């Protein structure tokens, strides 16, 4: 396999069709489609002096492997990481033949232009996991929760999964919302996203992030809005977008922007109106959404990143995602060693790292 590094936008654009074909054949995550990468790169990727470091593998002139990597500057270091690492979950290498995985990662590690590799979110059965254990060291792991859906209908799941007291509380809160204006639950999955719903999602997330002093994507609300609108457009074009919301009259109380891929709903970005928090609109929408998935014969509901207690309480399955590091220079080796010590201290005190996945995207449901 001939391993190459693509570092120019012109070369990246020339790769688009081959990348798309490779993803359609073997992709395991919708985020690996090149349109998502390009949407992120155009709006957020160029910030912070990032440079492209997309690794490609070729066999007799055919693209057979691709790792969508970039190099970002942080703490005076050049950090090699997934493109959109703080925005996309479940990143992985696209690889036509898994026998070439080690060659790809050895080629990536030997490439120049970075000090430390920080590769996040590797599932144990992912393409990259085994090869990364050979060239790097696991730094930390995160638990991802999931509901494997069974049962004849959403109402049956509701009755089995929730305690009588929780069912009673949800009915009471829904009645209280209805007294303010007719309660309604909406789902949109085909065609462009309704602008009014995307706007409500962005307002609610920005307000929640500010109120709770959470750093991340919504530190710059206008940039976050542009990125989410672009992601919604990409997902609608690919047929993977799933948008749901609840209303009291004409007022949108809670929104979820997610994806359906390979018959699984991915719970990507929930929001709720702070003024209605006492009525638990986020929780009501979540339960309605799971019921909808059962009624429409989806196989699973994936909570994605963020190990919030409410996810664990509803889940019947879980998996671990691992982050790996490896050094690209002697200075990077020293930084990697120091970073591991810092992580151990932060982990002991439960303090977040500055490079954590985007914490403002996750929230307890209210």
Side by side, the strands of the main sheet go 2-5-6-8-15-9-14-13-12-11-10
State the fourth-level CATH superfamily of the largest domain. Answer: Gcn5-related N-acetyltransferase (GNAT)
CATH class of the largest domain: Alpha Beta
Structure class: alpha+beta
Q: How many domains in all?
A: 2
* Number of DSSP strand runs: 15
* CA gyration radius, whole angstroms: 21 Å
How many H/I helices? 11
How far apart are the first and last residues' alpha carbons, in Å?
51 Å
Task: Give the CA-based shape.
Answer: globular
Question: What percentage of the residues does DSSP assign to strands (E)?
Answer: 25-35%
Question: What are the salient characteristics of this protein?
Answer:
366 residues, Aminopeptidase, alpha+beta, four-stranded antiparallel sheet, 28% strand, 40% helix
Q: Would you kindly provide a written description of the structure presented here, covering whatever features stand out?
A:
The protein is α+β, with helices and mostly antiparallel strands. It is built from eleven helices and 15 strands. Helices cover 40% and strands 28% of the residues.
């Amino acid at each position: 396999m001939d391993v190459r590094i693509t570092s120019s936008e012109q070369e990246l654009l020339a790769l688009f069709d081959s990348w798309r074909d490779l993803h359609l054949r073997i992709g395991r995550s919708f985020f690996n489609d090149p349109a998502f990468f390009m949407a992120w790169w155009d709006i957020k990727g160029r910030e912070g002096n990032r440079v492209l470091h997309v690794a490609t593998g070729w066999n007799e002139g055919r693209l057979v492997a691709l790792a969508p990597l970039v190099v970002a500057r942080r703490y005076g270091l050049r950090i090699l990481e997934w493109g959109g690492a703080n925005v996309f979950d479940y990143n992985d290498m696209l690889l036509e033949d898994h026998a070439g995985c080690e060659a790809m990662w050895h080629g990536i590690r030997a490439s120049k232009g970075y000090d430390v590799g920080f590769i996040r979110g590797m599932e144990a059965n992912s393409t990259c996991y085994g090869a990364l254990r050979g060239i790097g060291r696991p730094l930390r792991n995160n638990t991802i929760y999931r509901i494997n859906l069974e049962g004849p209908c959403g109402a049956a799941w509701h009755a089995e999964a929730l305690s009588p007291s929780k069912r009673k509380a949800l009915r009471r809160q829904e009645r209280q919302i209805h007294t303010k204006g007719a309660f309604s639950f909406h789902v949109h999955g085909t065609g462009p996203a309704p602008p009014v719903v995307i706007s409500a999602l962005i307002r609610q997330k920005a307000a929640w992030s500010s109120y709770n002093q959470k750093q991340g994507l919504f530190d710059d609300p206008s940039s976050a809005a542009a990125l989410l609108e672009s992601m919604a457009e990409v997902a609608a074009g690919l047929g993977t977008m799933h948008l749901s919301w609840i209303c009291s009259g004409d007022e949108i109380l809670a929104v979820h922007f997610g994806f359906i891929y390979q018959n699984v709903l991915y719970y990507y970005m929930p929001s709720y109106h702070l003024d209605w928090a006492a009525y638990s609109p986020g929780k009501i929408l979540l339960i309605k959404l799971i019921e909808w998935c059962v009624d429409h014969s989806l196989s699973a509901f994936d909570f994605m990143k963020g190990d919030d207690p409410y996810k664990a309480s509803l889940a019947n399955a879980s998996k671990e995602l691992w982050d790996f590091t490896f050094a690209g220079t002697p200075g990077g080796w020293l930084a990697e060693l120091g970073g591991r010590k810092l992580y151990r201290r932060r982990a002991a005190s439960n303090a977040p790292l500055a490079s954590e996945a985007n914490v403002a995207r996750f929230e307890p449901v209210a």
